[in-house]
Amino acid sequence: ITGNTLRYKRYFDDFPVFPINNFWSEQLSEQNKDYVVQTGNEVIQRCLLMSTDPGDLVLDPTSGSGTTAYVAEQWGRRWIAIDTSRVAMALARARIMGARYPFYILKDSKDGQQKEAELTRTAASTAPVQNDIRHGFVYERVPHITLKSIANNAEIDVLYDAHQPKVLAALAELNKTLRHHKTPYKVIDGGRAGKEIKFNAKEGETFTMPSGEVVKAYELVEWEVPREIPADWPQQAHKPHADFWKARIERQKEIDASIAAKAEYEYLYDKPYTDNKKVRVAGPFTVESITPHRTLISDEKGNFAEPQSDAVPEVDFVQMVLEYAKTSGVQQAHKEDKITFDFLKPWPGELVCAEGAYTETETGQTKKAAIFIGPEFGTVSRADLAEATREAAEAGFHVLISFAFSYDAHSTELNK
Questions:
Q1: For the chain: N or C, fewer Cβ within 10 A?
Q2: How far apart are CA 292 and CA 256, in angstroms?
Q3: Residues 373, 377, 382, 383: is their CA dihedral positive or negative?
Q4: How far apart are CA 72 and CA 96, in angstroms?
């Protein structure tokens, strides 16, 4: 075997072997739980990465403390989490809103194009980017190196020729310093393995290798230089010996990088590259509820029964909220700031659906309040609040009181 094949045969001797089994021990390693049936992050991550791609939608109908949603958010998957317990939903919401995630480099981005060019040793793509997560991330990869990929890599010879003069110059300097060294050196590797080189042999004496190559009997060839310098070599040989190995290692690194870049890859989908200069938090999400006291009756086979004609008539949602507000008032952060309505009645507005009045505790002044009620199963947006505020102001109300199950993330920015 000659040429590149001989140089890089060592690749096929160094690959580690990892046994894969079906015993998932990750769940046993995570003992700090916020919820009694909380699943370990590693277990969900393993399932998620095996079965989905970035941008896919993940549904967890029994989400508990939100581990699936947490892991899906980290790995760029959309998610829907469902649970019957408000305690579980509160834990999941706080967990996701307070999380900080690594920022993975998107493949469909300028940074992703630069990173791909760096890894493949090619020119960066100039295609327009949309920062679309469905294209995935830039992942770490393991080169699948074969003799064919090495043999077809013409760049190896170019790199070898570029670095070889520096290697040969350092080797010549090393041989020059050893020329009059009297102690023979026993060769470990190559065609002269086991034979001794006498550095002080006569000028012009040669040795014929098994391959037919003729070399000087009193000089080392490249592959015969020991990695560790022998203790009996003269002091002046230390620097050229170090220079030789430095040049050879630089050449090897360049060639190794070329081999890895030109070979086929096995992508490590659990190891995307991260941008440590950016901190990522969860994107906007909503928490929505189905009114708990509205149920459908099912028979023993799970079939839903049709409502009976004498069933209790459905209560209007807006009227139900107004009745609750009239009875319970509005509890604010401090008990002394509770709003108790003097009266509450419908108002024919587009967004303002009722008007009320209450008396401020501190000043004793009566305030006219506009009532805005959000959708029964939806989320109130900042635009809804802004429009309702404008309508209330034009109608002469002092304050706007908004009732909603949830608000979008941008609603907190409405501070005027």
A1: C
A2: 64
A3: negative
A4: 10
**Tens-binned pLDDT, residue by residue, of the chain (416 aa):** 344 444 444 444 555 555 656 777 655 555 667 777 788 888 899 899 999 999 999 999 999 889 999 999 999 999 999 998 888 888 899 999 999 999 999 999 999 999 999 988 789 999 999 999 999 999 998 878 888 888 888 889 999 999 999 999 999 999 999 988 988 999 888 888 888 888 988 888 888 888 888 888 889 999 899 999 999 999 999 999 999 999 999 999 999 888 888 888 888 999 999 999 998 999 888 887 765 555 566 677 767 665 555 555 556 888 888 988 888 888 876 777 789 999 999 999 999 999 999 998 778 889 999 999 998 878 888 999 999 999 999 999 999 999 987 888 788 777 76
Q: What pairs with residue 157 in β-bridges?
A: none
414 burial type by CB count under 10 A (0-12 exposed, 13-18 middle, 19+ buried): middle
For the chain, give the number of residues.
416
CA-based end-to-end distance of the chain:
79
CA distance 241 to 4: 24
**Conformation bin of residue 76: beta by default, left when phi > 0, alpha when psi is -120 to 50:** left
Q: How many other CB atoms sit within 10 Å of the CB of residue 382?
A: 15
Question: Cα–Cα distance between 310 and 283 in angstroms, integer?
Answer: 46
